[in-house]
Amino acid sequence: MHHIVVVNGPNLNMLGSREPSIYGAETLEDIHKLCDKTATSHSIKVDFRQSNHEGELVTWIQEAGRAAAGLIINPAGFGHTSVALMDALLSIKIPAIEVHLSNIYKREEFRHHTYTARAVHGVISGFGSHSYVLAIEALSNIFKKNA
Ligand code: CA2
After folding, report:
1. Residue 135 buriedness (CB in 10 A; 0-12 / 13-18 / 19+)
2. What is the pTM of this model?
3. Contact call for residues 56 and 8 (beta carbons, < 8 A)
């Protein structure tokens, strides 16, 4: 069984409480459950995490690089600002996929660029919680190809 880490960045713990028109009505716990269900159907085990602290996110990316088969990251606001998260992602060899709930290219211009996108296999943006489902499926395909 492959083991993946799903890392969620700042403010995503607030999902479901505000801005449902942009981010949907689901809570982060709902997304956690959806990831567990999707991963199980692909024989993948998920370690699902959220932090508001950049350094903690860097540590989790490094740990995933040592211990997991793949990484999914919603860097949230840090994607647009953090060279440190980009460097952490560049330092790991496992496939990593960046996800966003909203379509960042349809929103304010400052959201169109993420540093993290330079360091990941691919980016999935704009499908709400289904972005996470698509990312798990993409990792599953990569694992099968590399088997
Ligand atoms: O669309 C996404 O997933 C984002 O990563 C979400 C980030 C935003 O900064 C990115 O540009 C796109 C924001 C996450 C904060 O979500 C909240 C949800 C409810 C209430 C407050 C914040």
Report:
1. buried
2. 0.98
3. no
SS3 per-residue string spanning the chain: CEEEEEEECCCHHHCCCCCHHHHCCCCHHHHHHHHHHHHHHCCEEEEEEECCCHHHHHHHHHHHHHHCCEEEEECHHHHHCCHHHHHHHHCCCCCEEEEECCCHHHCCHHHCCCCHHHHCCEEEECCCCHHHHHHHHHHHHHHHHHC
CATH class in words for 2-145: alpha beta
Task: Confirm if 55 and 42 have CB atoms less than 8 A apart.
Answer: no
Is the model's pLDDT at 20 over the cut of 90? no
From 54, 78, 98, 104, give the residue whose CB has the most ligand 1 atoms within 8 Å, as the site to mutate. 104
pLDDT digits (tens, 9 = 90+) for 34-68: 999 999 999 999 999 999 999 999 999 999 999 99
Catalytic residues, by residue number, are 23, 100
| Closest residue CA from atom 9 of ligand 1 | 77
CB 123 within 8 A of CB 98: yes
